[in-house]
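Researcher: Structure for this, please.
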Amino acid sequence: MAEHPRTRRPNIFLSHRYRSPEINLYFWQLISRVQQVSFRVDEGLTFTSPTRLERMIREADAFVGIYPLPGDAQENWSLAALRHEARYFLLELGIAARCHRPAIVFCDHRYGPVLRAPADIWVIEYDQQEITEAEDSVLSARVTQAFRTFVGRLESSITARSSSRSSFHKHSVGLLLPPDTRAEVGPLLEDALRTAAWEPVNLPWPPRFDLAFTTRMRELDWGVVAIDHPAAVGAASFMLGHGVPSLQLVREPRAEASEAAPAEAVDTTVLGELEDRHPRAVLQWSEPAALGQAFEETLHVIGRQPRLIHDAEQAARYFRAATLRKEQVFLSYAREDSEIAAVFSRVLRSSFQEVFDYRRTGSIRAGHNWMDELMGSLAKSAVGVLLLSPDYLSSNYCLLESRRLYQASVQGEARLFPVRLRPTALPEFLKDVQYHRLETHTETEVEAAVADLIAQL
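Model: Predicted structure, token format:
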């Protein structure tokens, strides 16, 4: 009997280590020989949003992990070091397990003590020396056979999903908030969602786990849950267990509170260590205005489209570019300092994947509101480089950028790197921030300043 023709390439979420391009390409090439696939990846250019990762993985047909260890292939790693190196892999693999997506992982055998996956997730261990040292290794045959078998399972899964109706409505966001929280911040969250082209859906409170509630939750694109209320514990657990992407809100304990916040148990039981590893897994708040700003910035990241890799040329280009640092950099400077700023821009782009420079072609997209583009880039940036001069401090736009970046640094969401180009009196909010002094404005000195910045990250 003739093989049934494939109607489209599988859409696969690729979980991988950014700075191992040769190993990534090795597995990509083996996989592509078996089945042409389209990979979608989180480029890691912004802060990690588990909500965004959950949406990406739920929408994928399957999950593929490539998990090497850096450095000497014979080095023995401690358990603590393995856990630290695997922290993002474990986050993404945990999401794949909850979404019940077909998954296969190719991992360095030294990850064995920390990378324990459910039986339905295929884990193919390898010795890195089989890739880098042994040209006649049997690893390629093992990988090829394993992926060929995996493709059979994947095709069955795709067929089953295509024959059923879509299980969720794109862009619908559920709001599960107790009455007091809804009254205080509900309208603010709804307005932010609508502005960002999401459709807010107010869910009934308290949650009742009947058929109607279960159906409604599964129909959501993702949801917002105030987990500091005991009644929300079940809902948060339901969303995690059923692979429904979610963002948790926690009100910080008031000073007069005599008991521990109810969310403490939820953080430990439902979220585990995610909050410590990924600051934006939970939005903690005390004032509505601060929550609104943090929520808007999170929406920018959640809505960011993943990178598509469709062929070998794109794969090679992406994997090699991914060796650059993934933090998005915002270069803030006055128009009068454009000459030295161009040197900074060039040197930064040799070390970082994305550098926002408002004078560089393409930074502000044609046909878009430049202020919206500017604020969007500020919200997504993990590093702010401020080129301080008298002209900078006399510019309202530069001061706006520096204040936003300073606030992000205080909240632990960005690193601030001020560079003093010329002597000038600093504004009050920057007086306690250590800055780098530029003396001669040569490219060598700029390279040293950027090297200093990288050493601090």
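Researcher: Any notable elements?
Model: The chain is about 45% helix and 15% strand. Residues 139-162 form the longest helix (24 residues).
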